[in-house]
Amino acid sequence: MTEADRAAERRREQRAAELPPGMGKINASKDVCDKGGHPLSGANLILVTDKDGGVHRLCRECHRDQVRRASSLRRELARAASA
Ligand SMILES: [Zn+2]
Fold first, then answer.
1. Across the chain, what does the average pLDDT equal?
2. First-to-final CA distance of the chain
3. How many CB atoms lie within 10 A of CB 56?
4. Do 58 and 38 touch, CB atoms closer than 8 A?
5. 32-45 pLDDT, tens per residue?
6. Distance 31 CA to ligand 1 centre (A)
7. What's the CA gap between 64 and 77, in Å, rounded?
8. 43: Cβ contacts below 8 Å, ≥ 6 apart
9. Range of the domain at 69
10. Domain total of the chain
11. Could you tell me if 43 and 66 are in contact, meaning their C-beta atoms sit under 8 angstroms apart?
12. pLDDT (tens digit, 9 = 90+) per residue, 47-68?
């Protein structure tokens, strides 16, 4: 490791230490979902990886609700279009 590498490493550590406490860790530390207080664990937990490689946690219960709402909206629109 060169002196420049070590300096860069120190800067990285310093930046990490200067982040407001909890930034970026807030979501990771939650163990219930925001919307319905469902447990973010076990069978109710869905892990999704976005294109940047970030991992997000979804509540299966709320996700199902969202899908249900979206499909009933689609049905409504289809009915309205055919009437
Ligand atoms: Zn939920």
1. 84
2. 72
3. 10
4. no
5. 998 899 999 999 99
6. 11
7. 20
8. 60
9. 3-82
10. 1
11. no
12. 889 899 988 889 999 999 999 9
